[in-house]
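Database export, one record per block. Field names are fixed; values are copied verbatim from the stored entry.
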Amino acid sequence: MSVNWHTHRLLTALFVASLVSGLASCGAGPQKRGERPQQPPPEAIAACEELSEGDACSFTGPRNDEVKGICTVLKSDQETLACAPEGGPSGKGGRRRR
């Protein structure tokens, strides 16, 4: 009977280890509070479809405001261009205009 108990315990440990390993490799896990999604909005990608990296771009943001930026290659795939807002993702910060 102790062999079955040890076998059961070993199989359970292997199952848990493979589950944790699988979740870690796919990036699953709790999202941090206030963390922004990794992908830009579709409008930011569409704004650069006919442009090149470094070109000025703009799109209508989620609050129906015009967002101006620069076409930048996404870090996630190194191919797709998206309009990165001036001053960062929030459009705030960076250098002040005079």
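Remark 1: Residues 23-29, 92-98 have pLDDT under 50 and may be disordered.
Remark 2: The chain is about 30% helix and 20% strand.
End of record.
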